[in-house]
Design brief:
The protein is an alpha+beta fold. The protein has 9 helices and 12 strands. The chain folds into 2 domains: about 220 residues, no CATH class; about 50 residues. The strands form 2 sheets. The chain has a 6-stranded antiparallel β-sheet. The protein is globular and about 70 Å long. The chain starts with a strand and ends in a 7-residue tail after the last helix.
């Protein structure tokens, strides 16, 4: 190892090699190391197949976790801000709400003149803050997914009002060690799977002069989920839809009750429980709730539908 090469811990039979790629990423991006280092395990170009010790088809989990729909000749993959919007909700659930509950019980158990159905200003403020954080998580705009087109050998991205048309063979994707995202009390490593957007491939809109890192997936502790995301995309683009079980579903997977595969009795129970389920869904999975019910979302420019050959706006 050296300052410009780190060998990561082996997981699933693979030890990532993080190299300092600052020289090819421009000056517009800073990490927890400052501006001198950017440690990445480069996955493309050229597209690199990872030999992970996993069950066959393990990467298919990305259809359920990250896909916005698969359509045979192209797939739409959500960005991190869409499929991982739970930070504020979890903060409210596991920090603010227990704090409010503690204050609520202390006041009522310590005093006899406070009604149980009354919220003091402090309690009301904490409760309102909990709801506000959940609301922010589910109401943030839904960004367009990244479209990987196998037949055209191109990648389409609409990011911050700039439209990119990237040839697959020049598509820069890398797993970045992300010290600025270290979680769990700074005892756990974090990783970003980034798609780098170079201004050379911007065909419409303002993109600036420096490459931009679009975060596809962020992992804490184990980068397996990010590698599954990459392998799902790589296998589709390199080997076609026949290489994946879920490459032509014509829709995104959604968490719902009742499920179409359930028995008649189970469906009746599911219908009865569905109001409770959808009331709790923002707290169970803010991402699933937002992608289903949030009307604030970006739209593909018409050029993308022309390149794709049909109009599909899955999220």
């Amino acid at each position: 190892m050296s300052d410009d090469l780190w060998i990561g811990a082996e997981q699933h039979g693979y030890a990532p090699q993080f190299r300092n790629t600052k020289a090819i990423r421009g000056v517009g991006f800073s990490t927890g190391f400052g501006t001198s280092h950017m440690m990445e395990d480069i996955l493309s170009p050229p597209p690199r197949k990872l030999e992970l010790e996993q069950e066959e088809g393990a990467c298919e989990v990305s259809y359920y976790l990250h896909s916005a729909g698969t359509y045979g000749d192209f797939i739409d993959m959500r960005v991190n801000s869409v499929h991982c919007r739970q930070t504020l909700t979890r903060f409210s659930q596991f920090f603010l709400f227990p704090m409010m509950l503690f204050v609520y019980l202390v006041i009522r158990l310590g005093r006899d003149d406070t009604p149980w159905l009354y919220l003091s200003p402090a309690e009301a403020w904490l409760f309102g803050a909990c709801l506000l954080l959940v609301l922010i998580d589910v109401c943030r705009p839904i960004r367009t997914p990244v479209r990987f087109h196998h037949n055209n050998r191109e990648v389409y991205v609409f990011h911050k009002k700039a439209l990119y048309r990237i040839p697959w063979k020049y598509c820069h994707i890398a797993l970045m060690y992300a010290p600025h995202h270290i979680g769990q009390g700074a005892f756990t490593d974090a990783y970003n799977l980034n798609l780098w957007l170079y201004p050379d491939y911007c065909v419409n809109g303002k993109c600036g002069s420096q490459p931009v890192a679009l975060n596809l997936c962020m992992c804490v502790g184990d980068p397996e989920s990010a590698y599954d995301y990459w392998e799902f995309v790589r296998r589709f683009m390199e080997e076609g839809s026949d290489s994946l079980q879920h490459a032509n579903e014509q829709k995104a997977w959604v968490l719902k009750i009742p499920h179409s595969d359930w028995s008649k009795k189970a469906k009746i129970i599911g219908w009865l429980l569905s109001p409770l389920f959808y009331c709790l869904l923002p707290f169970i999975s803010p991402s699933q709730f937002a992608t289903r019910f949030n009307p604030i979302r970006d739209r593909w420019p018409p050029e993308v539908h022309q390149w794709t050959g049909r109009k599909v706006s899955g999220y």
